[in-house]
Design goal:
By secondary structure, this protein is mostly beta strands. The protein contains 3 helices and 13 strands. The strands form 3 sheets. Strands 1, 4, 5, 7, 9 and 11 form a 6-stranded antiparallel β-sheet that branches. The protein has a 5-stranded antiparallel β-sheet with strand order 2-3-13-8-10.
Length: 217
């Protein structure tokens, strides 16, 4: 018996009655497409500066929110019982740098607030020039789900043997975008997911629940 044919899922543009063509499924968005989707309001980046658009990404700037770790408070991080209150919020005075010392790991935040529709995902990557200076921008959390809304928390690490001064407002990372083959049925922020970081506006410490997580972190 031949299986029943599954009907095609309409794109977000088609569902909303927009006349503009949707990007091809499963493709990395070019600068022209990024500019168009931002202009149409499908991708939200605030504050928006067209000069930060690269051939296939958008540069993101460093915000003023950081979280530093208090390693003296615990002897180990137990993933079955993750500690709370392990970090402290720090914001440098205007014009002052945030200094990340050799081997230090801390959390930062992007200046830009990003919003994604249900059929587009994004990846945040470090900038090559900063990587060559020994600054790592993210350890693992480089993926942004469809439906994401908020600033992006950066996982900053200084791999050098000298301190690095970071200044809010300077380009720190780049964000690329890819289309899905169909809109997500349960985008990030869906009530069934318990999305931990939806709507964040500053560097946010881990909300890992321990054990096997059903909602995406």
């Amino acid at each position: 018996m031949r299986p029943a044919k599954i009907p095609a899922v309409p794109s977000i543009d088609q569902a909303r009655g927009f006349a503009s063509p949707a990007p091809d499924p499963a493709s990395v968005l070019s600068d022209g497409t990024i500019l168009r989707l931002v202009a149409e309001g499908r991708i939200g980046i605030d504050p928006w500066d067209e000069a930060l658009v690269q051939p296939a990404s958008v540069d993101l700037r460093l915000g003023s929110s950081f979280r530093v770790f208090h390693n003296h408070k615990i002897t180990a991080i137990d993933l079955r019982d993750p500690p709370r209150g392990l970090t402290e919020q720090v914001s440098p005075a205007e014009g002052e740098p945030f200094v990340i010392h050799p081997g230090e790991f801390c959390l930062g935040s992007t200046l830009e607030h990003v919003e994604l529709p249900d059929d587009i995902v994004a990846r945040i990557e470090g900038k090559s020039s900063l990587g060559r200076l020994g600054l790592i921008v993210h350890a693992t959390a480089g993926f942004c789900d469809p439906g994401w809304r908020g600033t992006l928390t950066l996982e900053l690490n200084n791999l050098t043997r000298v301190p690095i001064k970071l200044y809010p407002g300077l380009p720190i990372a780049q964000l690329s975008f890819m289309t899905l083959d169909a809109p997500a049925l349960r985008p990030y922020g869906h009530a069934a997911l318990g999305s931990h970081y939806q709507g964040q506006v500053e560097a946010t410490e881990s909300r890992y629940g321990g054990g096997a997580e059903s909602p995406r972190a």
